[in-house]
């Protein structure tokens, strides 16, 4: 009944195999979509945050570099102004009325030494200083080349602003430099009166290149110093192709003091940052490849998408394989079981798969082939079992015991001892009534004890030396045990214990319940057995039945094992009464509540797995 219902439920589940297959694929898609959306959103947020931080960091670094350039330019200008007020410099531009030739040479030497000293202090920013005396038409410089006084040159370049290049024809052969001319004309730096002192400060583009190289070594950009209309000053490892395209973009745009722009060059995104130098008027420009910097994030994003695509393909493929290799074979197996349930034992399952289901199909075919023969043999097995039971009971009914009891009753009747005849008849009737009942294979221990009492009372009537004690807990008397469990044990104690000697006659039956086991002890005060004999007898109980093995003990031991499990057994030992002790041990069966809990913890049958 239960198996039929389980098969019916399982059939309904398998019958919806295609819908389950579609649901599985739909579930895979539903699981993948939120993961992809969430990752795309988080990846976009991360990229935006990094992009913002990258722009902020880049503009800060450029501003710092621009402030360094402005700071060094301002230091140069401050020195020129201060230097123009030096007494020796003022003396150099004086009338020289009282100076002799030595004094003039000494003054020129001191001025030149101070300029060289200042340039040495700023060796990371070398500057060439030149002092022009308009009064005396002379010039002094710390430059490596000779400098001559040129009035037209001064008038052309004294503008009060930094200029890139000084307009000399011979300077075209040399790299351009930044120049600043300071005159002591108060309030008017772009005019000369004919007696002014002019201090020229100049530095070459190498100073800018050194700073650009240092900046590039600490980042991933490609910086340059840019002024529209002039050749840009590049770092020494600049990408010339990228720089040319960048200059074209810069020439086509108007720039503020601080600007940032995302541009695309050769299908790649770049971040252009520009900061204007307040002293020189040029722009410090840095171009940074955004795709290259954000490349690891993009690579991880693409790798995630590829991994998700592969997982999706693997999930769908696994679903298809699961359907083909599991659900379809199970459906075949269920159809075969349904046929067997209807009584068609000729059904066979054919399959071309080579996995665990092939073994199941083989076993199913073998099972259906054997079921018919098993069904045919069931009746014969039942008949043989009944015949064996009857033979067992017949073997246990000792005709000599019956004859002796009837003879005892005849003798007591002749002696007019009606009470002994009634007592023997009552016990003998109760004894054989219980012995011949075949409707139940088990009985309560209390019923078994009543049988033993009848048997011992019969023996006591025949042999006045016999006396017995029975001590069994009430809880133990309700236990169900195999019928005729105690009778062969007690009969052995009477015949081979008490009956072997005229000095013995005590039989003690005691029961205890401990550690989940029931134990019955049957003791007598007869001659007993040696330790070697006891050991042989105990080993015999664990072996197949032999011709010389006592059938009563072996049969009782086997029935205990069949009903209560392998933990149950008969154990023989010496009794503290001096004779033979038989210990009957069986494991307490689980109560209905314990059995229910056991099923919930893991011993649940498969039928319970098919929920409605």
From TrEMBL:
Encoding gene per record: yesM
Database matches in SMART domains: HAMP
HAMP domain span: 324-376
Transmembrane segments: 20-41, 303-323
Localization, UniProt: Cell membrane
GO cellular component, as recorded: plasma membrane
Alphabetized UniProt keyword annotations: Cell membrane, Kinase, Membrane, Phosphoprotein, Transferase, Transmembrane, Transmembrane helix
Pfam families recorded: HATPase_c (PF02518), His_kinase (PF06580)
Annotated SUPFAM superfamilies: ATPase domain of HSP90 chaperone/DNA topoisomerase II/histidine kinase, HAMP domain-like
Protein name listed in UniProt: Sensor histidine kinase YesM
One GO MF term attached to the UniProt entry: phosphorelay sensor kinase activity
Membrane topology recorded in Swiss-Prot or TrEMBL: Multi-pass membrane protein
